Amino acid sequence: MLAFVIRRLVQALVVMVSVGLIAFALFQFVGDPVNNLMGQEATPEQRAQLRADLGLDQSAFVQFARFAANAVHGEFGLSLRQGRKVSSLIAERLPATLELSLIAALLALALGIPMGVVAALRRGHPLSQALMAFSLIGVSLPTFLIGILLILLFATALNWLPSFGRGEVVQLGYWTTGLLTVDGWRHLVLPAVTLALFQLALIMRLVRAEMLEVLQTDYIKFARARGLAERTVHFGHALKNTLVPVMTITGLQLGGLIAFALITETVFQWPGMGLLFVQAVQFADIPVMAAYLCLISLIFVVINLVVDLLYFAVDPRLRVDRAVTAH
Q: How many domains does the chain have?
């Protein structure tokens, strides 16, 4: 177990160093920060002074070492567009993105798993066919189109829900949340459903496929031969083994929700990191882009590590295989 954890940590470190190199390359090859900060009217002396103050007159190796050291401490310099510390901007936007992604993930899990089970147990039934048709729509439609359709229906036509913004939020120390206000929940519904729909359809199809495969295995036939009730066979044996691969996919998809929430945040003008990144791209705000890239990569690495450890703990076959290999 310890060797497994160490190997995963080394792999995570290699990934983060690689991402750091890519993020550092943004500073080197995507525009000149001196021109972005001072404009074209600055004198050569002013440019040289600012370049020295920013450390841009040093070698690339020294600049990367300083960039990596600052990144470890969560510092990525000043935003070229807003003139504020990037860490402060990320801290302001992170709660909104995590809140949206968490609710979307819970919604996808709470609906996707039971819908997948129903679709597997009632194979060929009209209800199962309707669920599969729904999942096909959820997988096929792009996220921005889903968001626009929901806005047209629930915000414009029916006027039930707001179409943009985060609504009323509550400050809890350094954290802000809209989950404690009715207005915050009303603003959260449409973007959360939009972000969750693809993941819900994916989880449902995965659970159905895994459930059908597990139901054909020998130990399920043996359980039925012993006279166990169908409910016990389905939910006590089949579903438990079905959720092992689903857990892996779900963990990775949670990272995807956080990383690719930028489309949903742009459609609904949700004030999260995704919207901040889109605005940074529009204005070539390189420090914000680099910070977003490093943070999202760190989230992916952490989630991947946690999923690997959970998979290792849940699936005894991995422990047996590694014990056999070790001997």
A: 1
